[in-house]
Write a structure and sequence with these properties.
The chain is of the alpha+beta class. The chain has 8 helices and 14 strands. The strands form 2 sheets. Strands 1-2-3-6-5-4 form a 6-stranded antiparallel beta barrel. α3 crosses α4 and α5 runs antiparallel to α6. It is extended, with a radius of gyration of 34 Å.
Length: 377
């Protein structure tokens, strides 16, 4: 009883208000909330000083460049150029071809006319600028994929592979609502080799400045259009897009020499080493029809078969001839004129590649080359 009484007296004797702790808790919570809100507002405010604005723009520019597919080194180089050229609207370089070309021309001109770099370093820096152009152009291209063969035009070259075997060159003669009329290959119109109606086939074609397409079809019948024996085939509504061209090509029509490359193996079994030998004594004359940083098309009387390795020598300016090594990807036969080899480059020196890109993009000296030294990586 004594203990209970003493405890009771202590409680009754306290002068602390009953709601004080509640008020203190609410006040502390409000203070914390004000601090958090103030921190968020200060972080989200628009930068006011030039230094803050530059830092903010650098972040946004780098993020935009990354979204366009540019590696960090290329993004930093482009941003350095934009600042050196004092571009008023920097982000337009991602959408305006003219502005981007002008900035890159000035950069190349500045590199060519500085004495601070060796020739090797100049080639390395110019290669980055050309790659910036190629990446932005490739990722900005909005060429829509072809959905149906009903949009193909007469004259489009085709390669036909029927289920009975063989590959045949053809072209579209007319495009009708219910079928395609294509020229019949000679062997397909001769007695005994005429394809039966319903014969299934695979058709391939290359759409200029776009990509290669293939689609399944079948023979619907035969007809003669303007004196040309033709095969009527089914339209393709499920086109498969492949081999999209990554680099811009430019017509050139320059004479060239091309050489076959022979691969030999030396040594026993798995330790055998492969060696590539250019057969200089088998040199042949051809014509480079078009050119890109990734390859070229060569018209020749005796084109190599697909898969063959080749070395090509050609000239695009008054400097030393360009030498490139490549692989034949496909061949388009020309009646009485051999064919056109489509070659993918496998090895080209950086110096030669820069000359090819300069020709393709037409990066001549800018009209107003004055700018600060771009520096950069």
């Amino acid at each position: 009883m004594t203990l209970l009484q003493t405890s009771f007296q202590i409680i009754r004797g306290s002068n602390t208000p009953p709601n004080l702790y509640l008020y203190l808790g609410i006040g502390f919570g409000v203070l914390v909330a004000l601090i958090v809100i103030g921190s968020i507002v200060s972080r989200r405010r628009v930068p006011r000083s030039p230094e803050e604005q530059a830092q903010y723009s650098h972040f946004v520019f780098s993020r935009t460049a990354k979204a366009m597919g540019l590696p960090s080194v290329h993004a930093d180089t482009l941003q350095t150029l934009v600042r050196a050229c004092k571009v008023k609207q920097p982000f337009l370089v991602f959408s305006s071809t003219g502005l981007l070309d002008d900035v890159l021309r000035k950069g190349i001109y500045s590199i060519d006319n500085t004495r601070a770099y060796t020739e090797e370093e100049k080639d390395r820096r110019k290669a980055i600028l050309y790659e910036i152009k190629q990446i932005i152009e490739s990722n900005s291209r909005k060429a829509g994929a072809l959905k149906s063969t009903q949009y193909l035009r007469p004259g489009q070259a085709l390669t036909i592979t029927p289920e009975v075997g063989g590959h045949f060159a053809s072209k579209i003669v007319s495009n009708m609502k219910d079928f395609l009329t294509i020229s019949a290959p000679t062997t397909a119109t001769q007695g005994g080799t005429r394809w039966m109606r319903g014969t299934k086939m695979s058709v391939y074609f290359w759409r200029e400045n776009d990509a290669g397409y293939s689609f399944p079809s079948k023979v619907l019948g035969y007809d003669t259009v303007k004196g040309v024996p033709c095969v009527l085939i089914q339209h393709g509504k499920a086109l498969r897009r492949e081999q999209r061209r990554r680099a811009r090509r430019k017509p050139i029509m320059r004479a060239c020499f091309y050489y076959p490359i022979r691969i030999t193996e030396t040594g026993p079994g798995r330790r055998a080493e492969k060696r590539a030998t250019v057969e200089l004594q088998l040199r042949a004359l051809g014509t480079v029809v078009d050119l890109s940083a990734g390859g070229c098309a060569v018209q020749a009387m005796s084109p190599f078969e697909p898969g063959g390795l080749v070395m090509i020598e050609f000239d695009i300016d008054k400097k030393a001839p360009i030498r490139a090594f490549g692989k034949v990807k496909r061949v388009r036969r020309l009646k009485g004129r051999g064919g056109i080899m489509h070659v993918m480059f496998t090895r080209v020196t950086r110096q030669y590649l820069n000359r090819i890109r300069s020709f393709v993009y037409d990066f001549h000296a800018p009209q107003n080359p004055e700018m600060k030294s771009p520096g950069g990586p």
